[in-house]
């Protein structure tokens, strides 16, 4: 056997003849294709319009609530937010090397910072998990 040449292959593809059932299904699919395409088009339009309406309503509600909260925050909210955010940045600085560390350290330090300022919520989350 030579290492540099391969023997010529003489293979031939033979297609099986279609049965009468396969021909009937194929014909039915070709006849129904315009109707199914129309149904898919109408369904996509309905889904798109409905989802866009609900997404717009949800985003506007969340945005307005977030703006109201940031305009009238509770006392000491921004300093707490700063400490929790700084803990996340410190976690990113300490997490050199592994990708897992880059996920765990910032989240862990932010969680510890948040649990210092919000102990009742931290206990409730710990009980659930």
Can you characterise this structure?
By secondary structure, the chain is mainly alpha-helical. It has 2 domains: 54 residues; 55 residues, no CATH class. It contains 4 helices and no strands. Helix 2 runs antiparallel to helix 3 and helix 3 packs across helix 4. This is MICOS complex subunit.
Amino-to-carboxy terminus distance: 66 Å
Q: Strand pairing plus helix content: what structural class?
A: mainly alpha
Average of the residue pLDDT scores: 86
The overall number of domains is 2
Q: What is the overall silhouette?
A: flat
Level of helix content?
over 70%
- Radius of gyration using CA atoms only: 31 Å
Instruction: Give the helix tally.
Output: 4
Q: Which spans have pLDDT < 50 for at least 5 consecutive residues?
A: none
The amount of beta strand, in percent, is: under 5%
Q: How is the biggest beta sheet arranged?
A: none
Number of strand segments: 0
**H/E element order:** HHHH
């Amino acid at each position: 056997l030579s290492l540099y040449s391969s023997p010529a292959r003489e293979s031939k593809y033979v297609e099986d003849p279609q049965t009468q059932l396969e021909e009937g299904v194929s014909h039915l699919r070709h006849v129904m294709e315009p109707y199914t395409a129309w149904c898919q088009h109408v369904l996509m339009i309905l889904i798109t319009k409905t989802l866009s309406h609900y997404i717009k309503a949800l985003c506007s509600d969340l945005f307005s609530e977030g703006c109201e909260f940031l305009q009238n925050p509770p006392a000491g909210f921004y300093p707490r937010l700063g400490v929790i955010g700084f803990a996340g940045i410190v976690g990113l600085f300490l997490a050199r090397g592994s990708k897992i560390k880059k996920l765990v350290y910032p989240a862990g330090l932010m969680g510890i910072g948040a649990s210092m300022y919000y102990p009742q919520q931290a206990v409730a989350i710990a009980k659930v998990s």
